[in-house]
């Protein structure tokens, strides 16, 4: 009888040990699953970034110095900065907002309860005039203004700019034309075609739907535009297009990606794409 009790006791101990091992293995498995679980980083990006941001994301996700990149999915929505700002105010679930100006991130910062998360400048854009129907190789910015006001520039001649109220590149184009004292005249003769964002301006100009389009220099770098197809607008003739971003959902992936944007590797991508240094 004593031997049977000992056997039962031994069996019970073995069973408890097995259960403990099973529990430990289960915990370890759950921990491993949590570690390898895919995460999604959602970015709201200004339309002018559609050519450069995919390259930065590819570089970021293949960078061996960045841990767990294989478990991170990055989704990007491109639109005008004003439209994206309105979406975020309405509760759109973005983690990062990359604007084409400083105004919209600053407004979001003022609204945020977490004041430790502040806007940051990640690049500086350049404005260019683009045409596939009117060769520009013989023009300078000054002589181009003469062309805009000459007799050959008829009511049928069209120039497209992005909506100045929503798109920072459109605001800069308007400021440039105003500084040259021709914005009101072009607007009065209905020569200005307003697009929703800089991407739409590019499409208008690229397809010849308008004679000229004020676009981002980066868009022209992306398509390897011919020298006779564009003029880079002198940067001193319009307000600096400083592009700020802000973290909306303060997570580890969001912080890591925004750090990468401002790193030497990220800035190299911007420089190659036709942007100006932020310092």
From TrEMBL:
Pfam families from the UniProt entry: SBP_bac_11
Keywords linked to the UniProt accession: Metal-binding, Signal
Signal sequence segment: 1-22
Family under the similarity heading: Belongs to the bacterial solute-binding protein ModA family.
PANTHER family linked to this entry: MOLYBDATE-BINDING PERIPLASMIC PROTEIN (PTHR30632), TUNGSTATE_MOLYBDATE_CHROMATE-BINDING PROTEIN MODA (PTHR30632:SF14)
Protein name: Molybdate ABC transporter substrate-binding protein
Organism: Psychrobacter pocilloporae
């Amino acid at each position: 009888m004593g031997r049977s009790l000992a056997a039962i006791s031994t069996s019970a101990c073995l069973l408890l040990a097995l259960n403990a091992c099973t529990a430990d293995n289960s915990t370890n498995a759950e921990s491993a699953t949590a570690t390898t679980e895919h995460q999604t980083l959602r970015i709201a990006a200004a339309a002018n970034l559609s050519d450069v941001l995919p390259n930065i994301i590819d570089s970021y996700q293949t960078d061996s110095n960045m841990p767990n990149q294989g478990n991170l999915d990055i989704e990007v929505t491109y639109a005008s900065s004003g439209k994206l700002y309105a979406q975020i105010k309405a509760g759109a679930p973005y983690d990062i907002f990359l604007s084409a100006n400083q105004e919209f991130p600053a407004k979001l910062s003022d609204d945020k309860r977490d004041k430790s998360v502040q806007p940051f400048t990640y690049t500086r854009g350049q404005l260019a005039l683009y045409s596939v129907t009117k060769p520009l190789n013989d023009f300078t910015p000054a002589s181009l203004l003469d062309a805009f006001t000459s007799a050959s520039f008829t009511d049928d001649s069209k120039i497209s700019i992005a909506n100045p109220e929503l798109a920072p590149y459109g605001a800069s184009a308007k400021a440039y034309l105003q500084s040259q004292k021709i914005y009101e005249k072009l607007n009065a003769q209905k020569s200005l075609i307003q697009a929703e964002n800089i991407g739409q301006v590019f499409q208008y100009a690229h397809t010849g739907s308008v004679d000229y389009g004020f676009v981002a220099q980066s868009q022209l770098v992306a398509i390897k535009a011919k020298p006779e197809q564009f003029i880079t607008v002198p940067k001193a003739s319009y307000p600096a297009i400083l592009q700020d971003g802000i973290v909306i959902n303060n997570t580890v992936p969001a912080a890591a990606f925004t750090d990468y944007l401002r790193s030497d590797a990220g800035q190299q991508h911007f420089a190659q794409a036709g942007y100006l240094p932020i310092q």
